[in-house]
Amino acid sequence: MLALATVLLGFLLGLGNGAFNPKFPRDVLVIPVFVMLGMAQGRSSLVRPVLILQTIVFLTAALEAVRPDLYAETFQVLKYYVSTRDYSQNQFWNSESTLFISATRPGERFFGFIEMHRLSSIFLEPVSLGNYCVVVAILLISLWKDFGFWTRAYLIATTLLLLVGCDGRLAGASILIIMAVVPLFRWLPSRWSAFDLPLVLLASAVYVAIVQPAVGSDNFGGRVAGSLDLLSQIDVAGFFGLDARLSDIAADSGISYFVLTQSVVGLAAVWLCICLVPNGRDGRSRLFVHSIALFIPLSLMVSYSFFSIKVAALMWFCYGRICCTESVDEATIGRETISRATARPWGTRSFTRYSFRNFQHLARE
Question: Which of 14, 120, 225, 271 is a Cys-bridge partner for 20, taking CB atoms 3.0 to 4.6 Å apart?
Fold first, then answer.
């Protein structure tokens, strides 16, 4: 239903704009596509694929750290972005580097105790590697009991090294914030996560009003201030997705990009699907939904990297495996219970063989 609604909304907004950009519905279609792929995995464990992926990412990052020349020659990062994106070679401020534009950003590193360019690993640019670290941290929090002691130790150590290597400012802050509120997530129903987006927007507005950071500065405060400033410039047509031209300048404001390309109606539909579809009765799904519902708005305040398939694919695949498989299993239980009961005469003794609790599954569905 979400996939169908996304395509139809994309065509409607294209008609309203006078032009159809296939990237806009593609940004959201990533969600249902990879959720369904996660559901197709069934009850299979996520431990093995996560370990394999983590090892590939870590070994590639290690190669990049030790032999950046070999890494750049192998992946041809600069040539790739110049050939496939709207970049020109003079936009890469370090002319001596063939890495991504932000791999050697001016100024000091956030983790300033090491002197090295920012690592990108298989993602080719540092921001996605930072987002990947957040997703792995969320998986560790949600599936803590599924991982053995040595698996946990390996994932924690390698994720920490990757986080420091990519110099992920937002990623590091997001992980700390999520860990701080995990005790609350454990007992709060997952559907309460729908309030996370408006709460983060409100907290950002309060932060900007008190601190008053310079709009446009290349730091957390400047990007949040710039994001809110751009959001305030959107008119009624923009809120209904009829002024997508502004999306070209919304690279550092994911929330503005979301509204401009999907409309406020599309944003609400996507957000409510993410937060309300899982029932959250299982502790793992409750922690996972709450964690990504907090990470997504934090990310949207400073960039639109949330829409990148490089990290979104993993996050939504795990969402489908952890959260939606649970709902499908409960629906199956409810249908099987009713089919067994209705196959017998509706006498008192045959009816009481099936507990009232089992019939509640169907009532909930």
Answer: 14
Q: Give whole-number Cα distances, 25 to 6, 30, 262, in Å.
A: 6, 9, 8
Q: How far is CA 230 from CA 240, 251, 351, in A?
A: 16, 11, 62
Per-residue tokens: 56? 């590939």
Q: Could you tell me which of 73, 92, 72, 74 has the C-alpha nearest to residue 82? A: 92
For 209-254, write each residue's pLDDT tens digit: 998 887 767 677 788 888 888 888 888 888 888 877 777 777 778 8
Alpha helix stretches (DSSP H) within the chain: 2-17, 23-40, 47-66, 68-75, 77-84, 126-142, 149-166, 169-185, 196-211, 220-233, 236-239, 254-276, 283-300, 309-319, 325-342, 348-351, 356-364
Q: Which residues contact 295 (CB under 8 A, 6 or more apart)?
A: 134, 138, 174, 178
Model pLDDT for residues 152-208, shown as the tens digit of each residue: 999 999 999 999 988 888 899 999 999 999 988 888 888 899 999 999 999 999 998
